[in-house]
Amino acid sequence: MLKDKLNSYLQLQLKFTSSEAAKIIYGLQGLLSELSKLLIILAVSFPLGYTDEILVATIVLLSIRCNSGGLHFAHYTSCLIFTCSFYSAVIVLSSFPLTDAYLSFGLLFSLGIFILTGPITSVLRPRLTPQEVQRYTHRVIFLLLIYSSVLILLDSLPYRKIIYWVIVLQIFQLLCAKIARKGESYEKFSYTKNL
After folding, report:
1. How many angstroms separate the first and last alpha carbons of the chain?
2. Closest Cα to residue 126, out of 67, 192, 44?
3. What is the pLDDT of residues 135-178, one digit of tens each?
4. pTM of the model
5. CA–CA separation, 149 vs 190, rounded Å?
6. Strands (E), the chain
7. Cα–chain-centroid distance for residue 118?
8. CA distances (Å), origin 90, targets 35, 112, 130
9. How far is CA 55 from the centre of its chain?
10. Which backbone phi and psi does 69 adopt, to 5 degrees?
11. Partners of 120 in beta bridges
12. How far apart are CA 104 and CA 148, in angstroms?
């Protein structure tokens, strides 16, 4: 199997420990999984004329999701279906009118929800330390404030509604992830691995 060969190569040839090799393989698997999903979505969006929207949404989503986490699925297919649904919802919702008041309220509400939920990692990943929670929280708040300022100040910004709906839906699915974790708070637990 390719995974076993890569693991062997990393340990024997490059002298990584078994733990380091496992982390590298895990990272590569995640990267390939995400890249393949993006390519599938782009292949579908191209003939429909939504490639630019998907690329803008992906850039904004990655900047927030890499620091906030959210819902995670155990299987590639369920993750792909959810990701396609997420992008479809962004595109459909962005076709409706969006007033400045509604935009400002939605962004403020999203910021408040994030402050209450904080970052949510997969149960398969190590639990965040309180310092990591604080660091990721500060990053996301900073990003949300920057995006919010740009969206409020530049009402003629191309893809403004796409960016808005990516933020709102990402924070909404973060809230769903928090509920799915039954309100678990990182601060109540010591640092342990959930593997």
Report:
1. 23
2. 192
3. 999 999 999 999 999 999 998 999 999 999 999 999 999 998 88
4. 0.83
5. 36
6. none
7. 13
8. 20, 21, 32
9. 14
10. 75, -150
11. 69
12. 8
Kind and range of the H or E run holding 153: helix 130-153
**109, two tokens:** 């509400």
In degrees rounded to 5, what are phi and psi of residue 120?
Answer: -125, 115
**Whole-number pLDDT of residue 42:** 95
What does the alpha-carbon distance between residue 185 and residue 164 come to, in Å, rounded to a whole number?
A: 28
CB-based contact 152:104 (threshold 8 Å)? yes
Q: Assess contact for 33 and 42: CB atoms under 8 A.
A: no
Are the CB atoms for 136 and 119 separated by under 8 Å? yes
Cα(166)–Cα(41) distance, integer angstroms? 16
Give the residue among 25, 2, 1, 21 at the shortest CA–CA distance from 11.
21
What are the backbone dihedrals phi and psi of residue 74, each rounded to the nearest 5 degrees, phi first?
-80, -20
Tokens of 54: 């998907």
Amino acid present at 190: S
Distances (CA, A) of 154 to 35, 149, 151: 31, 8, 5
Q: What residues contact 103, with CB distance under 8 A and at least 6 apart?
A: 151, 152, 164
